[in-house]
């Protein structure tokens, strides 16, 4: 079974984003960029499926700027077999990404898509569900456990009340939550090897998909700031403050 | 403008998230509801009492149980001919279903709406809430999830909506619910608790978490939350997690104990009215957002606090 893993190049998890002073967006110039953490978990899960003999080939896909090639090389160094880069320099919305992935699915005929549940830049949490809808496939979102058994996948999902397990008919779309696995680091030899793995270059036109955004960003601002308050010196003083708030009698 | 709002329910109970979504819908125009599930008679009756609702569409079939998105999304799409907007609360159920609806309608969803500025313009958080974007949708129909802490709850009583059964639901056969492991607790639910006591990695293990955090929470009648670090380390289950990708909460009082305050955690609780932090590291980022901070050893402070309350 072939597994497709879309990955996104985003601001690094540890960088504090800064809003541009002109209010047009977040300043990404000279900022460290990395693979979206949820997508790393997706790549790792695909590799584990291959190690178990379930997956036969892993194809990493990125739809984004030319520099997303680095993100794909990371996926290849972790263990993906080949990569497809669909170059788009502007921001691409989840709906357009899902439409491109549908076209790639028609060519590649995967048994499974594994995606991060959300990207930590736009925080949309949409692409996997949209992809499943457009393909008419089952979806296992926010997965913390994935077991593939023949023509079905059993997926445990993190939901508001706890955990839920569903059975999906394959082919299916799975989106990852934090506790699905802990992604491996690529070793130096594998990073070297990844440089010679195949990476196909495409454009949205190759797939006939219109990527014109549907949402116009009118402005981006900083959230209202909280002021640091006071430090209290003792538990008694803290209890006084709690009394002041009326939460204790 | 006519909005269709998805009713959030669980085990025959209407959830409060619905009431916030109704308020968001009412800022767009008139509001009708959809209850989708199995044996949802009681939920539908409760939904019909929500103030300001016109029609409650009821899709009641075994295939719609457990919020299976593959079966519920087509029901929503079937109704959307008569609506300009679909609004779901940004819960795990809403987040699972709404994008599937949006794609089927060829609409780009607006996720996690914080405010409705006009019929087509909304604000939403990006970058873990470190920036707020104002976006304008060019789609003919709007599909959105709304952050429940950002909208007042509509009155649960006072309405008298018409109940309208939805026919022709079917089972796609794509996916099947197997089992659930749902936490049961006498404590208030995180998303509606007035006070939350949250613990972090500094608690060191699950026993300490239960021995220190829970008695304090019970003294205060509070809900219990946790940082991602505490959940990852297995001290508590995933449904305790507060943060960018966990639950978003905004209680009257949030007490963070042994939580350093990573931006991903702050994203989930910084709209709390009052934040109290207890941490041994006086430079911990949590103190930059805390109204009241106490620097010290939580293993001494928390028992003393619980004792003296």
User: Can you tell me the overall shape of chain A?
Assistant: globular
Q: From the helix content, strand content and strand pairing of chain B, which structural class follows?
A: alpha/beta
Ends apart, CA distance between termini of chain A:
63 Å
Q: Biggest sheet of chain B: strands side by side, in what order?
A: 7-11-6-1-4-5-12
- Our Rg estimate of chain B from Cα atoms comes to 21 Å
Textual characterization of the structure:
- The complex is a heterodimer of chains A (249) and B (309).
- Chain A is α/β, with parallel strands linked by helices.
- Chain A has a single domain, classed as 3-Layer(aba) Sandwich (Rossmann fold).
- In chain A, β8 and β9 form a beta hairpin.
- In chain A, α2 crosses α5 and α3 crosses α4.
- Chain B is globular and about 60 Å long.
- Chain B folds into two domains: 164 residues, Rossmann fold; 119 residues, TPP-binding domain (Rossmann fold, 3-Layer(aba) Sandwich).
- Chain B has 309 residues and is of the alpha/beta class.
- In chain B, the strands form four sheets. Chain B has a seven-stranded parallel β-sheet, with helices on both faces. Chain B has a five-stranded parallel β-sheet with strand order 15-14-16-17-18. In chain B, strands 8-9-10 form a three-stranded antiparallel β-sheet, with no helix packed on it.
- At the A-B interface, α3, α4, β7, β8 and β9 of A face α3, α4, β7, β9 and β10 of B.
- β12 of chain A pairs antiparallel with β10 of chain B, so a sheet runs across the interface.
